[in-house]
Specification:
Number of domains of chain A: 1
Oligomer: heterodimer
Distance between the termini of chain A: 26 Å
Radius of gyration of chain B: 32 Å
Number of strands of chain A: 10
Shape of chain A: globular
Largest interface: A-B, 27 and 25 residues
Largest sheet of chain A: 6 strands, mixed
Order of helices and strands of chain B: HHEHHEEHEHEHEEEEEHEHEHHHHH
CATH topology of chain A: Rossmann fold
Strand order of the largest sheet of chain A: 6-7-8-3-9-10
Strand content of chain A: 25-35%
Number of strands of chain B: 12
CATH class of chain A: Alpha Beta
Structural class of chain B: alpha+beta
Shape of chain B: elongated
CATH superfamily of chain A: P-loop containing nucleotide triphosphate hydrolases
Helix content of chain B: 55-70%
């Protein structure tokens, strides 16, 4: 199995005035290609901090982090931006689309920053929107779309650069349960297509979609369990499919 | 390629941002609009005055020396010049007879007097006496008729050449040639009309005068007035040599020793130009300083609005950073936004300045808006944009993506 994420003794220390707060205390975790991992934990457990570090939005105070063979824990801001652009697709709880741009342009944005030509950009962005079933909403602005559609645009944007990992932070937190289910189904499909997915959540029914659940508490890994559900074997079929 | 894509994206973003905040953008650019309007008006006015000056000064003649009692824009007290000896007819004759390196020489003398034609009369018409050489020396165009001949000049015939405004005022549509006018009560036949020359810097009209043979002038007005001796040099390049010779000849005429001080002035167009340039230079400097001040104030306004814009769009910056925008990209984006606002402001300024300059041209001063003024105005706008936008853009580029994403 190819290791995509490899962290060793990651520590994140926040200094607030005279107080020192360890958000993460020596996190060591390895995630392989095409895994579907849920990171869980109560608020204050450090899961957001870990997500930020895995997502290269933040750097650890100490420890080592290797993403897709590149040592990112020592990179500067601009190098991290490039890594985020190439290796990571973000899906946020609040969608985080650009309000004044239409769906197509929102999806196109990562490709603009990677310097791709316009015709290629449009082609890939249209393709990504097709994958999330929004081919007929391409020229709508976020305020003309429903919550579920907005999240689909965000997912298309995360996919468009063909990243190593898709990192979703409470992706259904702002959606009703039916729409949430649809979004989770979309993640399941993406996983089946070979993507590596990491979902940060505090809700069990979301975590159930993943095949592995990493639970954090007080900046430490409390448990790391492979549930098997939805896990894709080398044959390319899920356990459920195999059972049939 | 990548930079071009980023710039294009940034321009689109900034135009959208301006469109989304129309009123705010308008108020923010007001300073720049006013600044650019001022700088453009100032430049068009100076440019227009320059062109008018060039046209006016041509009447003085670039290759003509004026030997006079007074020195143009002389540094000494006016009294000093007034108490000098008058320049007399015999001195003119001495210069005429002894000057080697001159194309032509002629005297002029003049005063203001009453001119009458039938029942129309004016009391303040400048009348000049000169010789037939005047035409060769000054090279002014006679539109109708002719200048007087040597015979008419030497004989002191009662003939005259009139300026365009005189023709206009006294004759309207009638052909003035051959008509008889009274100058100070004496009859003169009109034999020529000067082409329209315009005014000297809008101060006095070059078309309001009458030229008569100097012999006749002396008979009417006497010989006590000081003459001006006009000396035309063979070329503009030879002007300095001719000037030295004129000084030497005048000194001999007046029996001033070689090392002695001149008690006469040898004037030339150059003196006008120097004085004019130092004057417009001063106007330019003061105007530029005031304009720069208004542009700085305008830039501060833009900087202020850019800070607000950065603050407002913290989340957007966070999103852009999360999906791969680097620091220089964000910096560029906000810098271009600021430059775009300023250039739009500059263009508005130009659109205001252009009709304004036409109005000024019609009622106040001559103006001209050449392309370089337009280019300069837009360049200054862009510069103001960089000046105003750099610090806010820098702040935006330094934002931490985690904090920016969390910002509501």
């Amino acid at each position: 199995m190819e290791e995509i994420i490899k962290t060793k003794d990651i520590v994140k220390l926040y200094i607030m005035g005279v107080e020192e707060l360890y958000a993460l205390k020596a996190i060591t975790v390895t995630i392989n290609r095409n895994e579907y991992v849920a990171i869980m934990g109560p608020s204050g457990s450090g899961k957001s901090t870990l997500m930020n570090i895995i997502g290269c939005l933040d750097t650890p105070t100490s420890g080592h982090y290797e993403l897709n063979g590149q040592s990112v824990s020592e990179m500067d801001d601009n190098e991290l931006a490039q890594i985020r652009n190439r290796e990571i697709g973000f899906v946020f709880q609040t969608f985080n689309l650009l309000p004044r741009s239409n769906a197509l342009h929102n999806v196109e944005l990562p490709l603009i920053y990677s310097g791709m030509s316009k015709s290629k950009r449009i082609e890939l962005a249209e393709d990504a929107l097709l994958k999330v079933g929004l081919q007929d909403r391409m020229f709508h602005k976020p305020n003309e779309l429903s919550g579920g559609q907005r999240q689909r645009v965000a997912i298309a944007r995360a996919l468009v650069n063909n990243p190593s990992i898709i990192l979703a932070d409470e992706p259904t937190g702002n959606l009703d349960s039916k729409t949430g289910d649809e979004i989770m189904e979309l993640f399941d499909n993406l996983h089946q297509l070979g993507n590596t997915i990491i979902v940060v959540t505090h809700e069990d029914f979301i975590a159930e979609h993943a095949h592995r659940i990493v639970k954090l508490r007080d900046g430490l890994i409390e448990s790391d369990v492979i549930t098997g559900k939805g896990f894709k074997h080398n044959s390319g079929k899920t356990e459920a499919q195999l059972a049939n | 390629m990548k930079l071009f894509t980023e710039i294009k994206e940034a321009v689109i973003i900034s135009l959208n941002a301006i469109r989304a905040n129309k009123v705010r953008s308008f108020l923010a650019t007001l300073g720049i609009v006013i600044g650019i309007t001022t700088v453009t008006i100032l430049q068009t006015a100076i440019e227009g005055i320059n062109r008018a000056f060039e046209k006016s000064i041509a009447a003085v003649g670039a290759d003509v020396l004026y030997v006079q009692k007074f020195e143009w824009f002389g540094k000494e007290d006016w009294q000093v010049y007034r108490n000098r000896r008058d320049i007399k007819w015999n001195e003119y004759e001495y210069v005429l007879g002894n000057l080697q390196g001159a194309e032509s020489v002629c005297p002029t003398v003049g005063n203001v007097t009453t001119v009458t034609y039938q029942d129309f009369s004016s009391e303040s018409i400048p009348v000049f006496g000169t010789t037939d050489e005047y035409q060769r020396t000054m090279g002014l165009d006679v539109a109708e008729g002719r200048f007087f001949t040597r015979r008419e000049s030497d004989g002191g015939w009662p003939v005259c050449v009139i300026g365009y405004d005189i023709k206009d005022a006294f004759f309207h549509d009638i052909n003035p040639l051959g008509k008889v006018i009274q100058i100070n009560g004496h009859n003169f036949k009109v034999i020529g009309v000067y082409d329209k020359m315009g005014s000297m810097l809008g101060l006095f009209s070059l078309d309001n005068r009458i030229v008569v043979p100097i012999k006749k002038y002396f008979k009417i007005f006497g010989t006590r007035r000081s003459l001006t001796i006009h000396v035309k040099a063979p070329s503009v390049d030879a002007l300095d040599d001719t000037k030295e010779e004129v000084r030497a000849v005048m000194k001999r005429a007046r029996r001033i020793p070689v090392g002695g001080k001149d008690d006469f002035g040898v004037n030339q167009q150059e003196a006008f130009k120097q004085t004019y340039e130092s004057l417009t230079g001063l106007i330019k400097t003061i105007g530029t300083a005031i304009t720069m001040l208004s542009l700085v104030v305008g830039s501060i306004g833009i900087a202020n609005i850019m800070f607000v814009s950065v603050k407002e769009r913290t989340k957007e910056i966070g999103i852009r950073k999360a999906i791969g925008a680097k620091r220089p990209t964000i910096l560029l984006q906000f810098l271009i936004e600021s430059i775009t606002i300023c250039i739009v402001g500059g263009m508005v300024g130009l659109f205001i300045a252009f009709p304004l300059s036409l109005i000024i041209d019609a009622f106040l001063l001559p103006t001209a808006m050449p392309l370089w003024v337009v280019v300069l105005a837009l360049f200054i706008s862009a510069l103001a944009g960089v000046f105003a936008g750099f610090f806010p853009a820098w702040t935006a580029s330094k934002l931490d993506p985690v904090d920016a994403l969390r910002y509501e």
